[in-house]
Amino acid sequence: MCSRQSANCLLHTEDCSTPLPPTHFFRIFLTNTKEEVSAEDAYFLYITGKMTEQTTTTAPVLKKYRFSVADYHRMAELQFFPTGKHIELLDGEIVEMSPINHKHAFIVDQLMQWLILHLHERAWVRVQNPVSLDEFSEPEPDLTVAKRKPETFKTAHPRPEDILFLIEVADSSLSKDRLVKLPLYAAAGIPETWIVNLEAECVEVYTGPSTEGYAQMQTFRKGAEIRTEWVEGLVVDFFG
Length: 240
What we know:
240 residues, alpha+beta, tt1808, chain A, 2 domains, two-stranded antiparallel sheet, 10 strands, 24% strand
């Protein structure tokens, strides 16, 4: 059996039959341990079975705390969040929102005006205001088209049963909108969600919500006319 002395030799020669550990072993070991351990001592622990690659690479399991909407509102009341930070609550996590550039803002304005003009008798249009999806999510979509009952919204944000469809205008936020917010909207039962993709210059319309996500997606490119359950006649000509 190799002794500590022979272990020291193995760091520099190949005269012993004891196999060398994986090449990344010492880097992992020295990164994860809080003790100052020499390379010779680390290798001695390895060959004597007192330290294995598995024990050095196993990360601790951390349980995250999920903030509820009530927690989130209480923190805001206590002015916990830095002034000027635009944030939203997504599945229990407080997430910073991307800054809104001029193109993003202009497209939101154009869509808002079209929706109010054409749907004002049937719907209530809200711009960049919260919606209460569930106990742990209060996102702020760019546009919310809700059932026309403004008296209700004096005392509470729209809930899934109040919402006809949502619109997210996405540039740098595209990955977050597709991979994080869209599944939350589908799981909450939002009937229809649009992602206005600024990079690809198209509108993605998602329908058929379930806990597994949206079942259908239609893409409307520049010049196309958007036709959905609630919208007819909106031409995709707002990208410039």
